[in-house]
Design brief:
The structure is a single chain. The protein is built from 24 helices and 22 strands. The chain is of the alpha+beta class and 656 residues long. The chain has 5 domains: 3-61, Helix Hairpins (Orthogonal Bundle), CATH 1.10.287.610; 73-306, DNA ligase/mRNA capping enzyme (D-amino Acid Aminotransferase, Chain A, domain 1), CATH 3.30.470; 311-386, Nucleic acid-binding proteins (OB fold (Dihydrolipoamide Acetyltransferase, E2P)), CATH 2.40.50; 423-568, 5' to 3' exonuclease, C-terminal subdomain (DNA polymerase, domain 1); 588-655, Rossmann fold, CATH 3.40.50.
Length: 656
Amino acid sequence: MDIKTEIIKLREELNRHNYNYYVLDNPTVSDFEYDELMRRLIELERLNPELASPDSPSQRVGGAPLSQFEAVTHAVPLESLTDVFSFDELRAFDTKIKQMLPDAEYVVEPKIDGLSVALEYENGIFVRGATRGDGVTGEDVTENLRTIRSIPLRIENAPERLVVRGEVFMPKAVFRALNEQRELNGQPLLANPRNAAAGSIRQLDPRIAASRRLDIIVFNVQTVSGMSFSFHSESIDFLRRLRFKTVDYMRCKDIDGCCERISWVGDNREAFEYDIDGAVVKINSLRQREMLGSTSKAPRWAVAYKYPPEKKESRVKDIIVQVGRTGVLTPKAVVEPVRLAGTTVINATLHNQGFIDEKDIRIGDTVVIQKAGEIIPEILGVVKDKRPDWARPFRLPDTCPVCGAPVSRDKEAAARCTGAECPAQLLRNITHFASRDAMDIEGLGEAVVELLVGAGLISSAGDLYYLDAEKISRLERMGKKSAENLMAAIEKSKSNDLSRLIYAFGIRQVGQKAAKILSEHFGSLEALENASLDELTAIFDIGEVTATYIREWFKSPQSRHLIGLIRNAGVNTLSIKEKADGRFTGKTFVLTGTLEHYTREEAGAIIEKFGGKTSSSVSKKTDFVLAGENPGSKLTKAQSLGIRVISEAEFEGMIE
């Protein structure tokens, strides 16, 4: 088989698997087999760039970052809808319609809570995608939309020109998984799937959008050449035949049927993979739509029924404390079961002690609950006149309810467990310990850490140095070779500089820079352990708060146990003095654009290793601007100031 034929067959096979998985929800190949096919296609296209194509499945992985989004004028406006909030208002809409069109038939669809976009196709090839914007002008987000696997990049037997409208959303399961990962990384949680989807599709780096696993539901034909439809339902069926993932609709002869369908959708909204904030009622006949037309703001032939946020009373039976992966103690109200937005609520988040004090929530209180963004149950307030005499206030504990370590409190009202080996933080702590910037144990990512913890092989980062290759090889998805590689990476990490070990401990406010300063100043882990508060604060860049966190961490019994394991395993605890190479001493670099062989962090670390500094902005004090692909305005400013601009190849020559 020649290369061109193989590439065509790979694209066809991957497109078929994408359709089966992302549209039909019926996967026909394992993730491993799919990844192998994709890797082969990417490699063939890389070696044969003349055979590259914009409709290739390889384009879904995300390309180089953009400097900005271009404006797009929609040929057919993406109109918004008039909202109604009750069946009485919906019947009033129907009365107006029936006065002009007594035989009008409706279509009811779930209103997906996402980001509206237009997809443009020419001769069956996806050429452009844009956000709704103000309805007339949006933003070109083509590269981000290419990463959505349910969007066909090529349509067989397609009209010459086709523009469709859809709603980009983040599936609820993906949203929950993303927030779990953000919690693991100590990042702020995303408020709701809609904001997460909108923020993802407007990322300048398509690789970020690709990682968010967005989806789309197509619900309208904006324009199509060479054919016409009589009914909206007919156009949706046409889109379904073209292999789009389309909206589920129901035809209703009268407004009573619409009300029944809206109630059904509302009662069953938890079963949808996406969030909905209402239901859309549209006239089905396209000819009748033309007769009614639109106002300056919205069409006259459709409305959006918005479900009111349900609010119900319940009683707080107890307040329990959960310890998150970052060590934050979060109070949670245990309430008497109450039905909200299609699910039974038995818990409601209380955020922190400040939230409890502000609303004066006590155990035994009757409270008003609603679902924030239809996802997270929250307490709106207390019904004070229903408070029993025995209701008691609540205070977060001073020790961790999981491991018993002391709890520290910061200015942000967060209470945190200080235990280095707390079981609640185990997964995050070990993953951080093994990360590239810490002990750099290759192959020990979160998934492998979960395997090791789940099998009971480790309960502390220190246990990594006592693992047995044979036991690892018996774990699912591992095997003898993987176990040997992991053991070799763990052994290699023993010789790391002390600065990496200090950073790996995860002491609050001790990042890579502070860890390096502490390593160079004290020279050994033992000296750092025994350092007083005054000795720590005497170091430049180590403030009193950071010094206090360091002292508290080293005093903890769990920390001392961890250090004991590490010492006994032969891990280096000394600062490794290297002969200084100051070739960049006194030089300031600004990095711009995308480098082929380095991330900005890696290039910056190399510059600092040779005595140089990096800056985020170009000024007269800048000595070099290292420019990669799509460099942006920093390059222009450097050229105007006469600052030397170097390529990645020149940079590599300077560091050889």
